[in-house]
Design goal:
The protein is α+β, with helices and mostly antiparallel strands and about 120 residues long. It has two helices and seven strands; from the N terminus they run ββαββββαβ. Strands 3, 4, 5, 6 and 7 form a five-stranded mixed β-sheet that branches. Strands 1-2 form a two-stranded antiparallel ribbon. A hairpin with a 2-residue loop joins strand 1 and strand 2. Helix 1 (about 15-30) packs across helix 2 (about 80-100).
């Protein structure tokens, strides 16, 4: 499903994978975020950290009347305050989607799928 942005010169269609890639890149820029996690957890509870090409697997984009809602699945660094990481990710995602794509984001839901000890 795509988001349609109407302009004076015509319509712009943005696929959800494009939005998900920008959201994933915005999320991992935050301190305390080890990486993106898949929204589907494995049987044994171990989460794989996604590489840059697979960010869309860790982001769910919902289109609502009030704007776009985004679910971000990530892995946090052990010893960091999860509430601060979440607030930081929410702010960065909202800002980048507004600046880069001109999309109003109504909500950013951060789901911490795991915690890893960094090397």
């Amino acid at each position: 499903m795509a988001i349609i942005i109407k302009t004076n010169n015509g319509d712009i269609s943005l696929e959800n994978d494009v939005i998900a890639t920008i959201v994933g890149g915005s999320a991992i820029e935050n301190p305390g975020v080890v990486g993106m996690a898949s929204k589907a957890t494995f049987r044994d509870g171990v989460n794989q950290i996604l590489n840059r090409e697979n960010y869309a697997k860790g982001v769910v984009v919902h289109q609502k009347d009030s704007g776009v809602a985004v679910d971000v699945y990530l892995v946090a660094q052990y010893g960091t305050k999860l509430s601060e990481i979440s607030k930081s990710v929410q702010g960065k995602v909202k800002y980048n989607l507004d600046v880069f794509l001109g999309i109003h984001v109504s909500e950013v839901n951060v789901i911490v799928q795991g915690v890893r000890v960094s090397d």
